[in-house]
Design brief:
The protein is α+β, with helices and mostly antiparallel strands and 568 residues long. The chain is built from 17 helices and 15 strands.
Length: 568
């Protein structure tokens, strides 16, 4: 089921209003009952409420073991009391599970399910001769055994029905029925023990049976809680290893957000980076969609994220009323539960992780410890990825022009030829250009001026090519442009545009050989050679060689400031 809550439909509420009152009247009117005194009613309500409010949770599934109490009410005083106590216990369970308004449909579905189970299994019990009051085990065994079997089967059928209603994957008599069967095995002896003990020692029986059961349930909850925390910590370590294996910043961010969203209920996730003494948004995801400009820069101690930055301590809130006083600036729409954790690197806060859910009471304190560990891994991973990308960028780019260098271009051309051979590329064209009379520029204005011309040339070519291809500095005053899926005719047309733009727009540079070092306008021209694959070459080296041949033989020798194509 998706993270979006399913709201109770009018049909579900109307069904509940029709079924429950009518069913309770039928149980009262047509099935035998013995009046229960107010004190006993209170005792049953307290025990039912406590047992329901503290369910045994195994593998994040609440195990509902209140039936051993309601069974005694059923045997002693009739079906009407069993139904009422069961409905009360469902309400207490919903409170225990922190079911909010958006999930209130769960109450209506469970209420109807357990009512139907109570009514039909009770009817079977009475049909087989079962009676209300005290009876020997011999008199109860057959109707009680069949009653439990019917209850078990109905529970499986209605669980299947509820999953179909909620559009979940459903299978009749699935693996979960093992838990239901174990529950049945526990309910019957506990219920019978309380039933017969109450006859002998009255209200003390509730203490003798109830206290050990609740103690056992508490121990199981604590054990399950520690198991859940250990599971979170183990998963955090596994995610940490996955993060540190990533070498790209975007990959680290994607894995971090994805894994956290799988572990916790997250509708909004923001990673904020400390930059120039402000928190700026590094990555924002809102209900599965990436948002780039959701949050404006945040000052230290400003709002929840700024407060966490300033105090260096994680915070979490169960609902909006708790964080409204601390909030300032942008807050995600509909946010209720919030957890915010600092990201440390070498004992310094380098960022903030901000998570929010539109549901109340979704986060617990122990989860901040798990997120602290994850954020530590993230801090290391993002730092390593940035360092790797910076080093990679330096190794792949010309330090002067910031264009790709020969090494990167050579690798790219090899990869593109592989795509061409596989059929993933139809054609591949290269434009190679060389600045005419570049030595004269250096001799006239100085080598530093020559460098300025190269930088301006790189910017001009890159702006002309845009995303149509890749521009690289091939060496000295030579530049090369790789154009995937571009035929020679289109490449020649583009090359001519490049040539004319350079020739018709003078460059500006300082004359470093002049005493005043004034800026001067310099006319520059280029000679260009064009070759295409697969028509002109069968491999990357041949394509480069043929473009170079067209440049020097077809353009340079023919007078420069021209475009020439390779001709076999």
């Amino acid at each position: 089921m998706s993270n979006q809550a399913i709201k109770p439909t009018k049909l579900l509420i109307i069904s509940w209003l029709l079924i429950l009152p009518t069913g309770i009247y039928i149980a009262y009117r047509f099935f035998p009952s013995v009046p229960m005194n107010p004190l006993l009613i209170l005792v049953f309500l307290v025990l039912v409420g406590v047992v329901a409010y503290f369910p045994i949770i195994i593998n994040d599934t609440p195990i509902f073991l209140v039936q051993w109490v309601t069974l005694v009410a059923f045997l002693l005083h009739g079906l009407i009391y069993e139904i009422i106590f069961m409905q009360f216990s469902i309400l207490m369970l919903m409170f225990s599970l922190k079911i909010g308004k958006d999930d209130s449909y769960r109450y209506f579905i469970n209420s109807i399910m357990f009512f139907v189970i109570s009514l039909f299994s009770g009817a079977v019990f009475y049909a087989l001769g079962g009676k209300v009051g005290y009876f020997s085990i011999q008199e109860l065994i057959i109707p009680l055994f069949v009653y439990q079997i019917v209850l078990f089967i109905l529970n499986q059928i209605l669980l299947y029905w509820s999953k179909i209603m909620l559009k979940k994957k459903a299978k009749l008599f699935a693996k979960d029925m093992i838990w239901d069967f174990c529950t049945l095995v526990m309910i019957l002896p506990l219920g019978l023990a309380l039933y017969y003990l109450f006859e002998e020692i009255s209200y003390v029986a509730f203490l003798l049976i109830g206290i050990p059961f609740l103690s056992f349930g508490y121990v199981l909850r604590m054990y399950n809680s520690s198991e859940r925390i250990n599971d979170y910590l183990q998963r955090a370590a596994e995610i940490g290893h996955q993060l540190t294996e990533r070498l790209q910043v975007n990959e680290v961010l994607d894995v971090f957000i994805q894994k956290i969203s799988q572990m916790l209920p997250v509708d909004y996730a923001y990673i904020l980076d400390v930059k120039n003494d402000k928190l700026v948004l590094l990555r924002g995801v809102e209900k599965g969609e990436q948002q780039l400009n959701s949050i404006p820069p945040i000052e230290k101690n400003e709002g929840i994220s700024g407060m966490v930055w300033g105090t260096r301590k994680a915070v979490f809130y169960h609902e909006k009323s708790e964080w409204e006083k601390d909030a300032k600036g942008y807050m995600p729409k509909g946010a209720e539960s919030i957890i915010c954790v600092p990201i440390f690197r070498e004992k310094k806060v380098e960022g903030i992780l901000f998570l929010a859910s539109t549901r109340k009471k979704q986060y617990e304190k122990y989860q901040t410890s798990m997120l602290d560990i994850l954020c530590s891994y993230f801090g290391v991973a993002i730092s390593n990825a940035r360092h790797y990308e910076k080093t990679k960028n330096i190794s792949e780019h010309c330090s002067l022009t910031k264009l790709y260098n020969y090494r990167y271009f050579d690798d790219l051309l090899t990869r593109e030829f592989e795509l061409l051979k596989k059929g993933d590329r139809k054609e591949l064209s290269i434009i190679m250009l060389d600045i005419d009379y570049f030595k004269k520029i250096n001799d006239t204005y100085g080598h530093q001026s020559g460098n300025e011309i190269l930088v301006q040339m790189a910017k001009r070519i890159r702006s002309l090519i845009g995303n149509r291809g890749t521009v690289a500095r091939y060496g000295g005053e030579e530049f090369v442009i790789l154009l995937p899926d571009t035929n020679k005719k289109s490449a020649l047309r583009l090359a001519e545009i490049v040539r004319l733009t350079i020739a018709n727009r003078p460059f500006s540079t300082q004359n470093f050989l002049d005493f005043d070092e004034k800026y001067e306008s310099v006319d520059i021209t280029v000679s260009i050679g064009v070759a295409s694959a697969p028509n002109d070459a069968d491999d990357a080296l041949a394509l480069i060689r043929h473009a170079d041949r067209a440049l020097y033989i077809g353009a340079k020798r023919e007078g420069k400031n021209r475009v020439a194509e390779y001709v076999k």
